[in-house]
Amino acid sequence: MRTARILTAATAAALLLAACGDNDGGTTGDEDAAIAVSASDTACDVAEGESAAGTVTFTIANKGSKVTEFYVYADGDRVMGEVENIAPGLSRELIVELAAGTYETACKPGMIGKGIRNGFTVTGSSTPLTEDAKLAQATTDYQRYVKSQTGALIDKTTEFVTAVKAGKVDQAKALFPVARTYWERIEPVAEIFGDLDPAIDGREGDQEEGQEFTGFHRIEKDLWTTGDISQDGPVADKLLVDVQKIVDLANSTTLSPLQLANGAKELLDEVATGKITGEEDRYSHTDLWDFAANVEGSQAAVSALRPALEEKDAALVTTLDERFASVEAALEKHRDGDGWKPHTALTEADLKTLSDEINALAEPISRIAALVASGK
Length: 376
Hints:
By secondary structure, the protein is of the alpha+beta class. The chain is 49% helix and 17% strand.
């Protein structure tokens, strides 16, 4: 849910991962069954308004001038699947698993607001992907990982909020990237629940009309621009309440196998469009902490799916292992003690190297969803 911004050359290269694999080799292999979505700055034309239950594939073509997103929502704006950062002229694919019921599709030109919405109906019944024992185990294993991260998230956010309310600027600065590490690792599940994600993680300028700038980045701005957090007590209290809501919801929610597959890719998109560019933590420049956490979260989702993937495509698993190791090695060069160098300490060459590594990992990651959906 990010506001589109002018991209530097390095950023533009990073953005290529958003399309990597989705146009070439990242499809299900049954394009006739896919539902075409034509997105523009003023329209979201979905070719079909209904589908049979099971795995549903959407191919989204951005024919507008703004970067856009595509979502499938269940009741209460629960996100069943999403594709972010679809640049003008590019196409992306989204595969979701939907049971019978009513849903909404949405395109978000400019990546803000509630989007241009259409009703979508799913009928009939299907065998859930979790009938596959390995895929069922993947959802259980990932849920265990989420619970381990949410426990640390609430603990570290509490410490951060306590420091902010006590006016301890240096301590709050030190805790800011640590608390966010646990948030960034579980973003695939954290982003499911409506307005909680932008309230917690929205950057300045991302807010809809009338929406207040709150959360981590509001406090970040005060910490690093003026150092005056004397008025941030209410913002800190709200942050902790919102994080607790996410923790409770995340701990009681089990993602589907396709949500794991899509989430692993979404986390890499987050790296390319926010962390490498320096847009995410624009005041603290702690973007590499988030970069590392997103990659770790992506790897956790892939690890949960690993037994099923090994059965379906062992060569892909080998490639994923190699690409993850390569990204980690490239990032490790920028470690600083127990943390990471500030984004401002990296050269354009450093950023391009990291961008290239993420692009190389994004391509095999983009193949996972179709493989999971194939049932083969």
